[in-house]
Specification:
The protein is of the alpha+beta class and 193 residues long.
């Protein structure tokens, strides 16, 4: 990375933003996704895909880690595919509540990776609004900036209502709507005049 790229990276902070995959993005891990960026520094970025539920439910996940989740509505909630990195590790994106061992605050939200938040959820003391993923999306230094320069992503300030109040299948159009864009307006080819 050149010094100019490093300076630009340091100036551009996409934390607490949505990345919305453009139709031209060829990576199947990210086609049609909305990613919430949890951390973006000169060293790289970390985010969670918020619109790809898996077949795994919270009830099943909690059984796997030897926690008893007795709260009926939560048991059937899906665990999400957070991205292709560390898919065996859980990440909890939530409205801040309580003090957990391993949390980072991002805007109005927090990202927690420690088991104590899952214990709090099992005990009925966890955050009301949360999204649990397996895996995350990660970029090395300058990589995300290069992808933005190639028009692989659109970015917009995140709205927690899209994450917690919008059905997963509607999160992509809802994120685009924050930019005033209808998904039908997007094309996967470049125009020539």
């Amino acid at each position: 990375m050149t010094e100019d790229q490093a300076t630009h990276s340091a100036e551009l902070d996409l934390s607490n933003q949505f990345l919305i995959a453009m139709p031209t993005l060829g990576d199947s891990n990210f086609a049609g996704t909305v990613i919430y960026v949890c951390e973006h520094t000169a060293e790289g970025a970390l985010g969670l895909v918020i619109n790809r539920p898996t077949d795994l439910t919270l009830g099943s996940l909690f059984e796997r880690i030897d926690l008893s989740l007795e709260i009926a509505p939560l048991k059937e909630r899906p665990v999400f595919y957070g991205g292709p990195v560390q898919t065996d590790r859980g990440f909890v994106l939530h409205a801040p509540i309580g003090e957990y061992t391993s949390s980072i605050r991002v805007g109005e939200l927090a990202l927690t990776t420690s088991r104590d938040i899952l214990q709090a959820v099992a005990d009925g003391d966890g955050p009301e609004h949360m999204l649990i993923t397996l895996g995350y999306a990660g970029w090395g230094a300058g990589q995300l900036e290069a992808e933005l320069g190639e028009n692989a992503w659109l970015s917009v300030s995140a709205d927690p209502r899209v994450i917690f109040d919008t059905p997963p299948t509607e999160r992509y159009p809802a994120a685009l709507a924050l930019l005033g864009i209808d998904p039908i307006m997007l094309t996967d080819g470049a125009g020539h005049a």
